[in-house]
Amino acid sequence: MSGATAAVKIKRPSPSRARPSPVSKTVTSSLAKAVDRYLLDQELADRSPKTLKWYRQKLSQLQRETKVVDLAELTRDHLLEFVADLRRRGRSPHYVRGWYQVFRAFIGWAREEGYDVHSSLVRDNAERWFALKKPTQTEAAVETFTDEDLERIYEAAGQPRNRLFCRLLAGTGLRLTEALELSVDDVQDDRLRVRQGKGRKPRWVPLSRQLQRELHRYLERIRLETDSDRLFTNRSGGSWSSSSATELLRRIRLQTKLPVHAHAFRHTFATEYLRRGGEIDRLRRILGHTTFAMTARYAHLAGADLGRGIDQLAPY
Question: Which structural domain range is residue 271 located in?
């Protein structure tokens, strides 16, 4: 059109993949000081204590094993050798992929903050700016329990508190820390309130009638009278620790010869939920997953039952 200036649209890279833009002047720093500053920034960003502990452990291990003093001396070769050593030790692909996320998050933060980063770690003029190739995602084996397995586990658990704890994990799909952090007030008739799930996200988790009865019986007849508000307490009336609960699962594992760990209960719940006709979106919300991709793997396990009810549901 005459007399008008056409607007020019500029395509911008998405924020999640865009290369962090360094400030005009770079700052040299020791690796240790940069790590401390990074952890402080993560704490100020309201990361959970568990996440902070995880990053602190990983970055401390990186410093010890690479023996790099200055951040600018940390090269792509250092990280590649570090990853190769993890694989030589038999670490799982999932574990190695977690390390990639640590590397990328830390180096990306350092560039945004203006720290001097070795050029081998950064690709110029590329949306995928990080020079380390992302490890391939492999489908890990998902362990689940049969009804017979669960009965053996409950029997081996011993005392009523331990049996209820295992039944709660199997009947709700809660993570270990979520179950241990439940308070008495979080048990509300036909559902549980998870105040802080993974990523500090609250949610509600439904309870079966059988589990409702078990919980009410435990609260009325079995749980110790104590000042603690935690649902599960130790013999002294204090909070039951993660290490003690993990030790319980270890003892059950040794006694039953079954792969008893907290996530196996979670896998069992999710798989059985779908096999029995549950909707995948509801399952995603119950488990506290942020994406469908995280929940979809259970659909593969429940695939043998996908044809159930097809005559009533299909239009032809």
Answer: 147-305
